[in-house]
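Project channel, design review

CF: Before we commit to the Piscinibacter gummiphilus constructs, I'd like one complete example in the thread so the newer folks can see what an input/output pair looks like. Taking LysR family transcriptional regulator.
RD: sounds good, go ahead.
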Amino acid sequence: MDSEALATFLAVHRRGGVSAAADELARTQSAISRRLALLEQEVGAPLFERIGRGLVLSEVGAALLPYAERVAAAIGDAQAAAEAARTGAGGTVQVVTVGTLANAALASALQRARARQPGLDLRLQTATSAEVSAQVRSGAASIGLRYFDDAGAGLECRTVHTERLVVVCSPSHPLAGKRVKTLSQLAGERWLAFPAPERRSEAFATTVFAQFTTRGIDRLDWIAIDSLTAQKRLVQAGFGLALLQASAVDEELAKRELAVLKVGDLDVAVPVVLVTRQGGYLSGGAKAVLRELMRPVR
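CF: and here is what came back for LysR family transcriptional regulator:
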C-alpha cells in the first residue's frame, strides 16, 4: 500500500467516480481503475459501491478513509516544510473555498497576503462545504473557507464573519424595493436556488429551504441552478427570486441590475468558517493568508 494508491483512492472518493478522479490527477481512466483495483486486491475487499452513476465508500473504504487522509496530509506537510526551508519564501499555499465565497473580499485578502509575502504562490480552488473540509483534512489544501462549522475530527474551525441573506428580484418585479410582512407571502413565486438533494449539494442550500419549511411550506416552485452568477443573471432577467448573501449582490444592487425585496420576518445570516487541520504544518505564507482572512470584513 503506497502513497500513490492512497491518493488515487482519495481522489475517487472526493470526486465520486473514476472519470472525475482521472481529471483531477491528470491520469487516464484505465490507470485510475487499475490502481484502485490493485489497492482493493491488497486490502482484500471492495472500497466503493456503485450508487446510480457515482461511487460511494463501502464499509471497508470508510474504515480506510481517515488513515489515507492522514498519510496524504503528512506527505503534504513534508513537501511544504521542505519547500519553505529550501526557498526561504512563503511557498505555495493551497486555498479551497465555497464558490460563493470567492468574492472581492477574498481576492483583497489574498492580495494583501501576497504583498506581505513576496514570492508567495497562491492556488485557489472552489468546492462545496463538505469538499472544503475533506481537502483540508487530507492535506490537499492548507486553508479552507466554508459555511458552518464542521464537527468532524481533525479540523480547527473559526467563524470569521456571517453572511446576511436577502431576497433579490428583478428591478422590474412588482415588489422590487417594497416590503412584505412574511416570507410565506412569497411562497407562490418561482425561486432559484442551489441544488439541495444532490451529492455535491452545498450546506447553504439547506438553509435557504429551511426558511420555508420552518413556516410550514414544504412545496415550492423552484429551479436548481448550481451557479451564483447564473442565479443572479436569471433573477435580473425576471425568471424568479433568490435568497442570496448580501455581499454577493452588492455590485448588482449598486448598478440597479437587481433589487432587494424586504421581508419582515426574515433575519437570517449564515456563518463563514475558516478551516485548518489540527496539528498541520503552516508555512509563513499560509500564516500570512490566515491573518488576512481573519481580519474583520468591512
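RD: helpful, thanks. The chain has a mean pLDDT of 88.
CF: The radius of gyration is 21 Å.
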